[in-house]
Write a structure and sequence with these properties.
alpha/beta, six-stranded parallel β-sheet, five-stranded mixed barrel, 35% helix
Length: 451
């Protein structure tokens, strides 16, 4: 990093160079994007929003093939910009780069890309970027796997008062529709003390809310020399003075334990919001998805959670049109939605993902059938969501103020149940906790006033 900083005045003739960075995909990607942004700022670059920057960086996602196509579209646009500014550096990293056919495509069709690296060697970025500044060759550095967990990466947070913290990396589940285990690698849990130390440092730096992140946080700790459960980790994180709120995602239903439900119920800091992906309500389809739970087990978990935490806000993910899904299977999904009373559900039309078992399954569902089912599901989710979310109307809730709303004089924040609330206030309240009466429910958000 020091070598790069020393080079910049000559390289850019005394002016401060600029960079643009764009994130695709999940919250774990967002944390890696923040780390790369922090490194660029530390070596002397200024962050801007224009693609006409001295360095343009994309953290890629590959969950859906459309995400890949989006990156190729960006590269087509950048090609013309780079013709005018041949010294521009173009960097691609993240999940999409872990796919060999993608790297081959970039080598053949996009030779103007300067640097390509993946998900396992982000800590090597300063070294790799130095090589791009001292070479005209395209640099590709992809690690297939790494058992190493690098601690202490810098970060450039979007909010000074809240952030995410990775507790584990990778995934062992191999859902038949998902590419993640192939690009993120096997599960690796961080040592609990390293997580505690990071959160303590964040709290000292002004953070009051953390989101603990992993592809499946419920299986946290299984790879450690001395196994620790996720419930035990939550209990330790709760002891950190100055930390007010703890969130986490994502929870896989097959690993959601009674111990974790009990820990959430007892906690004074863990938010009463749980994201519990369903994907399908049909036990037959769940088996084809390799989810390793069935409809009855899922509904049993929902009942346990609501019994232990009556005011819990439940959200979920649902896929419509998985190969072989019949109308009867779809009705099972609608049944679970009715019974689970989600605050909201993130609904997706099944997208064939090359490289996954589901992509080659027979009985792919016709597009018109999938769209018609999707619309029925969306209608039900919205109706039920409005009803579930409106249960807090008239209550006073503590809100963490996040930012100014688009409407002048209005602020936006969230309840512990992850409901968005808009209310009048001044910018000096951003980052503070205020008591707000929830006056009007607008479906998935509220209007209220400070009390």
């Amino acid at each position: 990093m020091n070598k790069i900083t020393e080079m910049l005045p000559d390289l850019y003739q005394g002016r401060k160079p600029t960079f643009r960075i764009e994130n695709e995909g999940c919250q774990m990607n967002s944390l890696q994007t923040e780390s790369i942004a922090a490194i660029m700022e530390q070596i002397g670059y200024e962050k801007i929003s224009s693609e006409e920057a001295d360095a343009v960086i994309y953290n890629t996602c590959t969950v859906r093939e459309n995400a890949n196509l989006k990156i190729y579209g960006h590269l087509g646009h950048l090609k013309s910009i780079k013709k005018k500014n041949p010294h521009m550096k173009i960097i691609l990293f993240g999940c999409m780069m872990q796919e060999p056919h993608v790297v081959e495509t970039i080598q053949k069709k996009y030779p103007f890309v300067n640097l390509v690296f993946g998900t396992h060697n982000i800590h090597k970025f300063p070294e790799l970027y130095y090589r791009t500044l001292t070479s005209d060759s395209q640099i590709i550095d992809i690690w297939k796997e790494s058992d190493e967990i690098i601690e202490g990466m810098p970060t450039s947070r979007k909010y000074p008062f809240k952030t995410g913290v990775n507790v584990m990396f990778g995934c062992n589940n191999f859902c038949s529709y998902c590419i993640v285990p192939y690009v993120r690698g096997r599960e690796k849990s961080r040592e609990p003390q390293a997580i505690i130390n990071e959160i303590k440092a964040l709290v000292e730096d002004g953070v009051t809310e953390v989101m603990l992140l992993g592809q499946n946080v419920n299986s946290y700790g299984k790879t450690l020399a001395e196994p620790v459960s996720f419930a035990q980790l939550l209990t330790e994180v709760e002891k950190i003075e100055g930390l007010k709120r703890i969130r986490f995602m994502t929870s896989h239903p097959k690993d959601l334990s009674d111990e974790l439900i009990e820990a959430m119920a007892k906690s004074k800091k863990v938010c009463h919001h749980l994201h519990l992906p369903l994907q399908s309500g049909s036990s037959r389809i769940l088996q084809k998805m390799n989810r390793r739970y069935d409809k009855e087990k899922y509904l049993g978990l929902v009942e346990k959670i609501r019994t232990a935490i009556p005011d819990i806000s439940l959200t979920t993910d649902i896929i419509v049109g998985f190969p072989g899904e019949t109308e009867e299977d779809f009705q099972e999904t609608l049944d679970v939605v009715r019974k689970s009373e989600y605050d909201t559900a993130f609904t997706f039309i099944y997208s064939k993902r090359t490289g996954t078992p589901a992509a080659s399954m027979p009985d792919q569902i016709p597009e018109d059938v999938v769209k018609e089912r999707f619309n029925r599901l969306l209608t039900l989710v919205q109706e039920n969501g409005r009803k579930a979310s409106s249960r807090f109307t008239g209550d006073v809730k503590e809100i963490l103020v996040e930012e100014e709303s688009k409407e002048k004089g209005m602020l936006t924040g969230r309840t512990e149940h992850n409901l968005l609330v808009h209310f009048e206030g001044t910018p000096d309240l951003i980052g503070q906790y205020v008591q707000v009466k929830l006056d009007t429910c607008k479906g998935f958000y509220y209007f209220g006033h400070i009390v």
